[in-house]
Specification:
The complex is a heterodimer.
Chain A: E1 9-10, E2 15-19, E3 24-29, H1 31-37, E4 40-44, E5 51-52, E6 57-63, E7 67-71, E8 76-81, H2 90-94, E9 103-106, H3 119-129
Antiparallel strand pairs in A: 1-2, 2-3, 3-9, 4-6, 5-8, 6-7, 8-9
Chain B: H1 8-13, E1 17-21, E2 24-29, H2 33-42, E3 45-48, E4 53-58, H3 62-69, E5 83-89, E6 95-105, E7 108-113, H4 118-129, E8 135-138, E9 142-148, H5 152-157, H6 162-169, E10 176-179, E11 182-185, E12 194-200, H7 204-213, E13 217-218, H8 221-230, H9 267-276, E14 280-287, E15 298-301, E16 304-314, E17 319-327, E18 333-338, E19 341-348, E20 353-354, E21 357-358
Parallel strand pairs in B: 3-13
Antiparallel strand pairs in B: 1-2, 3-9, 4-7, 4-8, 5-6, 6-7, 9-12, 10-11, 11-12, 14-17, 14-19, 15-16, 15-18, 16-17, 18-19, 20-21
The chains are: A alpha+beta, B alpha+beta.
Chain lengths: 130, 368
């Protein structure tokens, strides 16, 4: 069974969101997602400083099997990206909620996180899908 | 419901993650595809390939039938026990499937074709067979286990009784023999030494467990794909298909042009192509920029566009590699369209890796 931390929010496309305060939201992919993808061999993260729309690709993760886009759940400015993943993509497999974070986005919408599932809802969602 | 091999429950016991592969529920990996890949390059790994189709061909017309059916010439097989790789072509010279033929005994041959092409292959073979005194028997009663790697032969032999042990180790490359209940062939699809073993389906679990106890690591189809890619071995449906000539897929070496009077299916089309000159060549690519090569990516060269036919991450090189069709001529570098970004790649001659050794120069270029 995959790990689903209680303090995060989740999307239906298996991204997680963490509130870092000051409107900054950290985004990654869930344990369930990394397990389904298999071992990652390459991660492409975006340039910082540019604006991104919700639903736009904010990173691409490539496993031994295939390439998958990660969509930004929120609109805002990309303030940080985890460049270290280019050399160590396996951080996403080994620590998806920690060292495997992908991007940090500053959003002006202070209710942005309210739209997403909490851990209990995401757990149900994963169980229904499997 | 998907087909399952006799080893399916065993795979689940071993923690396999399974996928649908040509209508079969098959293991993609048992935890780490990359570790499985390394097991085969460094020691020994084993694959359940029972989804593949085994067809026995017998009768007085068997030899003539296969000399008509295949672009390679089974008359190269001088003695029973030898094996030959080749293609079955359509009249246009496109590849219906690639397959391996074993010469079992006079008037008896065995071919192994792909799983995903099972239906069309058998329909085509049966249609062609009507003109010959030949009987085709699909061996759905058999399982197939490939044990591959530098230590694979020793590990398999270690599970056999004294006489069988000697007989198995005595097999030369591309040879096969019926040894007890096992039909053991010194063939494979990984670029390493090893055996492919056909055995009665009812014994599949028992032998799998013996090989496991002898130290062969279970490996999924994921590792099988990266191993064959490094070894520069074509995959049907990706690197060639019914609309691709073997001459444009790096398989010219499998066409037996001599003797000239052997009228194999597709010969006329291939001769026209050869006379006109083949506009494409089949090459290896080593990605020099960041990213991962994948099948269907467009290639730009100074001589025109090409196509990545297979691509992925090479665990041995720790780089992305691919197989590709590009315009004929002397081309050293190209650009690959990786989701809208043009990435530089160097053209190399496959294989990338054989028998554990890296055969291409990886000193240049940006690593990831």
């Amino acid at each position: 069974m995959s790990t689903i931390p209680d303090d995060l929010k989740y999307t239906q496309s298996h991204e997680w969101l963490r509130d870092r305060g000051d409107g900054v939201i950290e985004i990654g992919i869930t344990d369930h997602a990394q397990d389904a993808l298999g071992e990652l061999v390459y991660v492409e993260t975006p340039e910082t400083g540019r604006d991104i729309d919700a639903g736009e690709t904010c990173a691409t993760v490539e496993s031994v099997k295939s390439a998958s886009d990660v969509y930004s759940p929120v609109a805002g400015e990309i303030v940080d990206a985890n460049d270290s993943l280019a050399d160590e993509p396996d951080k996403v497999n080994n620590d998806p909620y920690g060292e495997g974070w992908l991007v940090r986005i500053r959003t002006a919408d202070d209710t942005a996180l309210d739209r997403f599932m909490d851990a209990a809802a995401y757990r149900d969602y994963c169980e229904e899908a499997s | 419901m998907a087909n399952r091999t006799p080893l399916y429950a065993r795979h689940l016991d071993l923690g396999a993650k399974t996928i649908d592969f040509g209508g079969w529920d098959m293991p993609i990996h048992y935890g780490s595809q990359i570790e499985e890949h390394h097991h085969v390059r460094r020691d020994a790994g084993m694959f359940d390939v029972s989804h593949m189709t085994i067809v026995d061909i017998s009768g007085d017309g068997a030899r003539d039938f296969l000399r008509r059916l295949l672009a390679n010439d089974i008359d190269k097989l001088k003695a029973p026990g030898k094996a030959l790789y080749g293609c079955m072509l359509n009249q246009r010279g496109g590849v219906i499937d690639d397959l391996i033929t074993y010469y079992v005994a006079p008037s008896r041959y065995r071919v192994i074709v792909n799983a995903a092409t099972h239906d069309k292959d058998l329909a085509w073979m049966r249609k062609q067979a009507t003109a010959f005194d030949v009987e085709l028997t699909e061996r759905a009663d058999a399982a197939l286990i490939a044990v591959q790697g530098p230590d694979a032969r020793d590990k398999v032999a270690g599970t056999l009784e004294a006489d069988a042990h000697e007989a198995a180790l005595a097999l030369s490359p591309f040879s096969a023999a019926q040894i007890g209940d096992l039909f053991i062939a010194r063939t494979g699809y990984t670029g390493e030494d090893g055996f492919e073993i056909m055995l009665p389906a009812g014994q599949a679990v028992a032998w799998w467990d013996k090989f496991l106890a002898a130290g062969a690591a279970p490996c999924g189809l994921g590792a099988r794909d990266t191993l064959r890619l490094e070894a520069g071995l074509n995959l049907y449906g990706q690197d060639m298909d019914e609309d691709v000539s073997p001459l444009a897929a790096g398989l010219g070496w499998t066409i037996a042009w001599e003797p000239q009077d052997r009228d194999f299916i597709g010969r006329e089309a291939l001769e026209k192509q050869r006379a006109a000159g083949v506009a494409e060549q089949f090459v290896g690519l080593l990605l020099e920029d960041r990213g991962v090569l994948r099948g269907h990516q467009r290639i730009e060269t100074d001589a025109g566009d090409g196509l990545v036919t297979s691509g992925g991450f090479s665990p041995t090189l720790e780089r992305s590699i691919g197989l590709a069709r590009i315009p004929a001529g002397d081309i050293e570098r190209c650009r690959v369209d990786i989701r809208g970004r043009l990435a530089g790649a160097r053209v190399v001659k496959p294989p990338f890796v054989r028998k554990g050794k890296i055969l291409v120069d990886v000193s240049e270029g940006v690593t990831q």
